[in-house]
Design a protein that fits this description.
heterotrimer, A alpha/beta (184), B alpha+beta (628), C mainly alpha (134), A: 184 residues, two-stranded antiparallel sheet, 41% helix, C: 134 residues, mainly alpha
Chain lengths: 184, 628, 134
């Protein structure tokens, strides 16, 4: 009797296994793949890069300390970034936070041309020619935007382009809160 | 008008499939309606007619570049050459599903035509099951993936076929692959029908065997073609990436290998019935699961179709229904063996051992493919499982299988012992001395490479030296197939060990020496095709006295503006020379990838031999069936 | 669906970059072993913006930047383990094609061989039992 029950149980094994797989596949259909904005507290990595506009000038992490800044990663070869540039001009016009740009694996001359043509909202503009600072930051593509507090800690990370409306609803509160301890 | 005709054909086919699925079984169950069984074969033929017609109208729309149809607008262009307009039909999701349905209907027709010797009950049941699968696919197409949808405003021009697909490889690889995938629906149907129809409970495996062999032959060719195509198309000299979509075709192939061997045993010895049935079900279920994985968006792969969660849900629901139906029948009408298992040491038992290894290998690949999904669903962690895992697991599992393949053909079918086996093996084993010079040549290689190459060559030699009392077609089939595996193994081991990959910067006029081949970059010129512009490099490769001209290209396709690399390959039985252009580095110099790949062709030659062997066995199995 | 397009778009942008700027560096090492190490590491690391490619095969800027970083670190003499753990700290386990062995993934590595053992036992049991009967 026991033997026959055990024999019968074996037959059900493949069926159960496949049902398990079906459940997994069904759940997998609903995995969200949209990268969400991350609120984190990782320190901004140390670096030493030249400013694209003043090549003799070396910029380091120390230059970011002391104030809340927005770090924006972009590139001239990235169409989305070039279109987004206008948005940043408008944003900084209205909310003059320090905007630290970082051009990713880019050509300095092309960048300078774009800034000359369209305008330059950047306080500092890092030239990450090899993309190594980008790797340190965990950059996946361009454009990406970080908010760094006065102690050099990354407090916010967004993947993708930003328009003024998004800035005002998502980034501005964070900036205001971080600045809340000092003069707003 | 033509697209609507195609759509209407599909709807008719769906209606006919529903008829096939419902009415003949009614005739089987209720003797009152026995005449309904006569509907089975004509419906099957009619379904095929309408689905093929629908497929042809799709192609006609492509040939005419009818941009009022959304699918054509997404996948064609006014400058697309005619050849590629034909195969653009299966260039994206909707059209490739229609190809699936078309091929399914062709297999259904084939079964209908060759089933005259079956009893009406068996005919009806088998065809009804195939009809049910047809219903599922046609519903899927009509509900979620209609290739005949019109655009509200016809597009001015199309978005062009992905340049990666504008290649002769794309004309043949998907059709062969689908013939294989889809073909496993036939042994599936025979297995289920065999369990349902009283008289066929022990003979269905004999009927299913030729169809399984044929589908397996096609799948072997499909995978071989895919590997060869990836090699010359992608520009990196790779021929297998353990990409989820590749795995999705490899798993049914592995189970299919187990199936054709198991059916052989079931048919001749009348045991192993439940295992054969299980394999027949699982092979087809894996084919369907592969279809799901590729189109649902759950897996990230370079082969992926643009996905839509709704399609994924639909395919999953269909898969669930197939599973419930198939396993319901399997568990309720569990096949009983009419014979006992053979002796522990016999050809049959060793074949079953091989089956077991193939099954575990398939499960392992499935595990690796689905594990990232599992982690993400359960733990919300993203991880990757790639070639390092699959190679580390697959190779140790295949090693005992290859050893089995060397020994088993020499073992008696029913009962054998080691002493008798040794008597038979002594002489062929002595011939292994032939390998000594090869070992001497290989002594600089790693022991790993030497072991695998030896194994492959021993397999080839052992199979050739098998003395058969009669040179029959089935034995020829086995010989070709096993030699094919041996060759492929040697190809894989040697090419991985001996290949030379160099990525360098070369200026026009420069010469580089790699492995006593002299590569001279002669010139770079502009070229133009019907829908692309490009740059073509001219290289001369000299070795000893011979020299060959090679012309790798960089093409910029006008509609989609994607740069494409056309590799230049000098193919040879003993080595391939492979040149691919990277990027222009300015001032007349280019980044160039030069690969020298010894014995890489053996991999695909092996695959072709396997398919040849399978076809021989399939033909003889069909002939046997007719004799009954 | 949108995300797929977005990711493919990033990859596409990566491809586009080649038309405008030639930033392909050559990663050459003095020693053969270091060159081999570099090639092997690159084959085991995943391009994080591409559907399924390693960083050597991918044209995406992230992949090339990662290669540049690995090149620098190998030259400085960092070990393969250190380089990999650095990249994992920045990109997560996702970037490794060879899954790490930890409490979550032990099943992945162990199951194939456990299943093989179970299968061998079942095979033996089935045929041995039959042999005993007859």
């Amino acid at each position: 009797m026991m033997l026959t029950i055990r024999a019968h149980l074996w037959r059900f094994l493949p069926a159960f296994f496949l049902i398990g797989i079906m459940w997994l596949l069904w759940k997998a259909l609903y995995i969200k793949n949209i990268p969400e904005d991350q609120i984190s507290s990782k320190p901004f990595p140390s670096f030493s890069l030249n400013d694209v506009r003043h090549e003799e000038k070396a910029v380091t992490l120390a230059d970011l300390q002391g104030q809340v800044s927005i770090v924006h990663v972009w590139a001239s070869w990235c169409d989305v970034c070039v279109r987004e540039h206008q948005e940043w001009l408008n944003i900084i016009n209205q909310w003059p936070y320090p905007l630290v740009g970082m051009v990713y694996r880019d050509d300095a001359n092309t960048v300078k041309t774009i800034l000359a043509e369209k305008g330059d909202p950047f306080t500092l503009l890092l030239n990450d020619r090899t993309g190594q600072l980008g790797v340190d930051l965990g950059i996946v593509g361009t454009p990406e935007t970080f908010i760094v507090d006065a102690n050099g800690v990354i407090r916010y990370h967004h993947l993708g382009a930003i328009d003024q409306a998004y800035f005002e609803s998502e980034l501005l509160p964070v900036l205001k809160q971080l600045n809340g301890n000092d003069v707003g | 008008m033509i697209p609507e005709f195609g759509l209407f054909s599909l709807i008719l086919a769906l209606l006919l499939s529903s008829v096939l699925m419902l009415l003949p079984p009614l005739g089987v169950v209720y003797s009152r309606f026995a005449y309904l069984q006569n509907l089975a074969r004509p419906s099957a033929m009619a379904i095929c007619l309408f689905v093929v017609l629908s497929f042809c109208t799709g192609i006609a729309c492509f040939v005419q570049n009818d941009f009022s149809v959304e699918y054509i607008a997404q996948n064609s262009h006014s400058t697309l050459p005619l050849v590629y307009r034909f195969c653009a039909m299966w260039g994206a999701h909707e059209g490739s599903l229609l190809l699936w349905a078309c091929i399914l209907s062709l297999w259904t027709l084939a079964v209908a035509l060759f089933s005259r010797q079956l009893s009406p009950a068996m005919q009806s049941t088998t065809l009804a099951i195939l009809g049910a699968i047809n219903v599922g696919f046609l519903l899927l197409i009509l509900q979620t993936s209609n290739p005949f949808l019109r655009l509200p405003v016809p597009a001015a021009d199309g978005a062009d076929l992905n340049p990666l697909l504008q290649d002769p490889g794309f004309v043949i690889h998907p059709p062969f692959l689908y013939m294989g995938y889809v073909g496993f629906a036939v042994p599936f149907a025979f297995a289920l029908a065999g369990m349902l129809v009283k008289d066929y409970q022990s003979t269905w495996s004999q009927l299913a065997r030729p169809w399984a062999l044929l589908a397996w032959a096609f799948l072997t060719l499909g995978i071989t073609l895919g590997s060869w195509w990836a090699y010359y198309e992608l520009g990196w000299g790779g021929w297998w990436f353990w990409d989820p979509v590749e795995n999705a075709s490899f798993m049914p192939w592995l189970l299919g290998t187990a199936l054709v061997h198991a059916l052989n045993i079931s048919a001749r010895s009348r045991f192993l019935m439940s295992w054969s049935a299980l394999l027949a079900i699982c092979t087809f279920v894996l084919s369907l699961m592969g279809t799901f994985l590729v189109r649902s968006g759950v897996i990230s792969s370079v082969h992926m179709f643009a996905s839509d969660p709704l399609r994924g849900v639909f395919i999953l629901a269909f898969l669930a229904i197939v599973l419930v139906g198939a396993f319901g029948i399997y568990l309720k009408r569990f096949p009983k063996n009419t014979n006992n298992p053979s002796h522990l040491f016999s050809k049959q038992s060793l074949i079953v051992l091989g089956n077991m290894i193939l099954f575990v290998t398939t499960l392992s690949i499935l595990l690796g493919t689905l594990f990232p999904l599992f982690m993400e669903v359960i733990n919300d962690k993203k991880m990757s499982v790639g070639p390092p895992f699959f190679n580390s697991v697959f190779l140790p599992l295949v090693l005992p299988l290859l050893l089995l393949m060397v020994i088993t053909p020499y073992v008696h079918w029913d009962e054998d012992n080691l002493k008798a086996l040794w008597q038979r093996i002594k002489k062929p084993a002595a011939m292994l001395i032939l390998l000594l010079p090869a070992w001497f040549l290989m002594k600089t290689l790693s022991w790993f490479t030497i072991a695998w190459t030896t194994l492959g060559s021993v397999l080839v030699l052992a199979t050739i030296m098998l003395r058969n009392s009669k040179r029959t077609l089935p034995k020829l089939g086995m010989t070709f197939a096993h030699i094919g595996i041996g060759l492929a193994t040697m190809g894989v081991a040697l090419t991985t060990a001996l290949q030379t990959e160099k990525e360098l910067k070369m200026a026009v006029g420069e010469t580089v020496v790699i492995q006593d081949h002299q590569f001279t970059f002669i010139e770079m010129k502009n070229i133009e095709g019907s829908n692309y512009q490009g740059r073509q490099g001219h290289f001369i490769v000299k070795q000893n006295q011979s020299q060959v001209h090679m012309y790798p290209e960089k093409r910029y396709f006008i509609p989609r503006e994607i740069p494409m690399t056309e590799t230049a390959i000098d193919a040879g039985l003993l080595r391939d020379i492979y040149i691919a252009l990277g990027e222009s580095l300015g001032e007349g110099s280019w980044s160039v990838r030069i690969y020298i790949k010894p014995f890489v062709r053996w991999i695909w030659l092996g695959g072709i031999l396997i398919a040849l062997g399978a076809s021989c066995s399939a033909i003889s199995a069909f002939r046997e069936g007719v004799k009954k | 669906m949108r995300v797929m397009v977005w990711i493919l778009g990033l990859c596409f942008l990566g491809l586009m970059s080649q038309k405008l700027i030639a930033l392909e560096e050559q990663f050459a090492f003095a020693s053969q072993t270091q060159q081999k190490d570099f090639e092997n590491i690159c084959k085991e690391l995943r391009c994080v913006t591409c559907p399924n490619q390693n960083i050597a095969e991918s044209h995406a800027p992230v992949a090339k930047a990662m290669q540049a970083e690995i090149y620098q670190r190998l030259k400085q003499g960092d070990s393969i383990v250190d380089i990999k753990s650095y990249l994992v700290s920045r990109y997560g386990d996702y970037v490794l094609y060879r899954p790490v062995m930890n409490q979550h993934t032990w099943a992945l590595w162990a199951l194939p061989f456990i299943l093989l053992a179970i299968g061998a036992y079942l095979w033996f049991a089935k045929f041995y039992v039959a042999a005993r009967k007859s």
